[in-house]
Amino acid sequence: MKQVNSISVSELQTLSDKMYGNIVKAVVDIDKKIMVIDAEMHVDGEQYLLEHGSQQNSLWGINLHPANYGTENFIEFDSMINIRPRQQNMSRSVENPNIQNQITDIVSEIITK
User: How far is CA 48 from CA 28, 65, 69, 85, 101, in A?
Assistant: First the structure.
């Protein structure tokens, strides 16, 4: 697991081949605009960011599909850490379109072709 400021799609593909074959798990802090990747479970990335000063309300789990880079299927807004009734997010998905857009913008800044 590591925090990344910049990573290429080919590097993501290498990570996905080692872990799950088609995805890389990531946790994004929408306030700090940072991302942790390559944890076995989203909760591991979440814990890392909490230990490094992030706030729970800002952390969202996603899956990246390197083979789908450049399509709407590249980012999957699905993680157990996203279930938080206190933020009106009742499912594993990121339900708020504004938060989805923030996540997409951050991911687009960090991941390069």
Answer: 11, 22, 26, 22, 23
pTM of the predicted model as reported, rounded to 2 decimal places: 0.96
Tokens of 102: 């923030």
Buried b (16+ CB within 10 A) or exposed e, 48-61: bbeeeebeeebbbb
Helix ranges (DSSP H) in the chain: 9-19, 42-51, 97-110
Pair of tokens at residue 51: 């230990």
Contact assessment for residue 9 and residue 113, using Cβ atoms and an 8 Å cutoff: yes
Q: What is the pLDDT of residues 13-53, one digit of tens each?
A: 999 998 878 999 999 999 999 999 999 999 999 999 999 99
